[in-house]
Specification:
Layout (H helix, E strand, L loop, with lengths): L21 E7 L3 H12 L5 E4 L8 H4 L31 H14 L6 E2 L4 E7 L4 E6 L4 E9 L22 E3 L13 E5 L3 H10 L5 E5 L6 E2 L8 H9 L1 H16 L10 H17 L3 H7 L11 E2 L3 H4 L5 E4 L5 E3 L2 E3 L5 E3 L2 E4 L13 E3 L6 H5 L17 E3 L12 H21 L4 E4 L1 H15 L27 H9 L6 E4 L1
Parallel strand pairs: 1-2, 1-6, 2-3, 4-17, 6-18, 7-16, 8-9, 8-16, 9-12, 10-11
Antiparallel strand pairs: 4-5, 5-6, 13-14, 14-15, 19-20
Helix pairs in contact: 1-11, 11-13
Length: about 500
């Protein structure tokens, strides 16, 4: 039985600070992935597990990202668990607060509260082949051991702070969209937004309403498509609530519609060409000014970088108090930003809408495997995994939203559920089968990735554009190479020969 040390009493059913010395399984992260993993572990009969998170509650990225306008760009009914459908979504695309509230309810409804431990930051992990256990070290120096570990920290967890010369000289507030400070008031200020991707298109229209002026620094333009968002009608919400079959069918139809869009991500395909013509036509209609339109129109295929959904970003850029500068921020002064060509832009406040360190998987952890080398050393700048879930030499460790499991066309929640099932079954086998070491073979990992990269080379993601989908040397490390259904079938395929087991 695991031993525990009494600490603070849980409050409001949220914060359970008691930690065991040892446990059968640990899940790191309490966002969508962590909740899915906990649910699947319980379904496999595993009860001796804990879910750790450095934050003060569940939610993951949806707790951390609270900037104005934060919302999902996947339809609400599809961006939710298949095993916990929600009839009460207010809109077709949910705002941040609503998604966070949904995850709070899911943690309660799925019986995960007793397993949750918050405000616990894991800084290091090391595997002992003799004991067949991982030792996790926390920021306060305490440790615990576990037979199996499921990493649910995600790809979008660590903010990407750009390195700008003389950044320390700037005297005004500087905030990142992924570490938002609600105490900063931008009313009447000259605001500079560095970055123009997913968070920027949501943030800019809100900031521009009250700021004296807003300047957007754009390094690379993005393709923008209209977002088919609206509030659900009372009749629709009544039907979702009273007819569970319709709720399931609606979600299934949404999934299939999104699956059908994958051909647009195949390089030089008919669907890709049609998408480019469609988006170019939309850009011409929404941005009449030719000069601005040329600055905003990419020269790469749609999908090479993430396609952005917005009904008001392009329109906001045309407001009198907003301007776009198609240059990077090169240097900061106490009250201004300088571009590489010396253009000086006065600024009272700076917002970094520069996304996450997406290609640095498990960036905040030092993970040491069988040989003693760290995961970072093992990858040498090019993350890779077997089925996006396991890495050879790092046994009894499973990753959700690991390398090559991101999608450009469908809901990541579907992928997380499939990985959670896959990982939970193996953790259950570790425990019930008295297996000390469960390690994927290097041959299986290499063969999987060779085939995967061959398929990825035929997609638009391999195109010539800077993207968080790939490393600086052009290796696509984030995206899956086909349909989400294909990923599910891959994980369903028996792979006993791909694993080395030590009992």
């Amino acid at each position: 039985m695991p031993r525990t040390t009494p600490e603070a009493e849980p409050t409001f059913g949220k914060r359970r600070t008691t930690l065991p010395d040892e446990v059968s399984a640990v899940v790191i992260g309490a966002g969508f992935a962590g909740i899915a993993a906990g649910h699947r572990l319980k379904q496999e009969g595993v009860e001796d597990f804990i879910i750790l998170d450095r934050a003060e509650g569940v939610g993951g990225v949806w707790r951390a990202n609270t900037y104005p306008g934060a919302a999902c760009d996947v339809p609400s009914h599809l961006y939710s668990f298949s095993f916990f459908l929600n009839p009460d979504w207010s809109r077709k695309f949910s705002p941040q607060a609503e998604i966070l509230a949904y995850l709070e309810r899911a943690a309660d409804a799925l019986g995960l509260r007793p397993h949750l431990r918050f405000e616990r930051t894991v800084t290091a992990m090391s595997f002992s082949p003799e004991a067949g256990r991982w030792t996790l070290t926390f920021s306060d120096g305490s440790t615990l051991t576990a037979r199996g570990v499921i990493s649910a920290v995600g790809q979008l967890a660590e903010p990407n702070w750009p390195q700008i010369k003389d950044q320390e000289r700037f005297e005004g507030p500087m905030v990142h969209t992924a570490a938002w400070d609600p105490g900063v008031d931008f009313t009447g200020k000259r605001v500079s937004v560095i970055g123009n991707a997913a968070s920027a298109v949501q943030l800019l229209p809100e900031i521009a309403k009250t700021a004296r002026s807003v300047t957007v620094f754009q390094r690379t333009p993005n393709w923008v498509i209209e977002k088919p968002d609206r509030a659900f009608t009372a009749a629709e919400k009544w039907l979702f609530s009273k007819a569970p079959w319709w709720r399931r069918l609606y979600r299934r139809m949404s999934y299939l519609i999104h699956e059908a869009r994958f051909p647009a991500f195949l390089a030089k395909s008919i669907a890709s060409g049609h998408t480019r013509r469609q988006l170019t036509s939309q850009m011409k209609k929404r941005v009449p000014d030719k000069g601005l339109r040329e600055m905003l129109t990419p020269d790469y295929a749609p999908g090479c970088k993430r396609i952005l959904l917005s009904n008001d970003y392009l329109e906001t850029l045309q407001k009198p108090n907003v301007r776009l500068i198609a240059r990077r921020a090169a240097r900061l002064e106490p009250d201004a930003i300088l571009t590489p060509d010396g253009q000086r832009v006065p600024a009272d406040a700076i917002i970094f809408a520069t996304g996450f360190r997406a290609v640095d998987f498990l960036a905040s952890l030092e993970v040491r495997g069988l040989s003693g080398e760290t995961l970072k050393e093992h990858w040498a700048g090019t993350p890779r995994a077997y089925r996006g879930t396991a890495v050879s030499g790092f046994p009894n460790l499973f990753m959700l939203y690991g390398p090559n499991t991101n999608l450009g066309h469908n809901s990541i929640i579907f992928m997380l559920e499939r990985q959670a099932e896959y990982a939970a079954k193996r953790v259950a086998a570790l425990i019930s089968g008295r297996i000390k070491v469960m390690d994927v073979t290097p041959e299986a990992e290499a063969a999987f990735n060779k085939k995967l990269q061959r398929k990825l080379a035929k997609t638009v993601w391999a195109g010539d554009c800077p993207s968080w989908y790939k490393t600086e040397d052009g290796v696509i490390t984030n995206n899956w190479a086909g349909l989400a259904t294909g990923f599910a079938l891959t994980l369903k395929t028996d792979d006993a020969e791909s694993w080395r087991l030590v009992r």
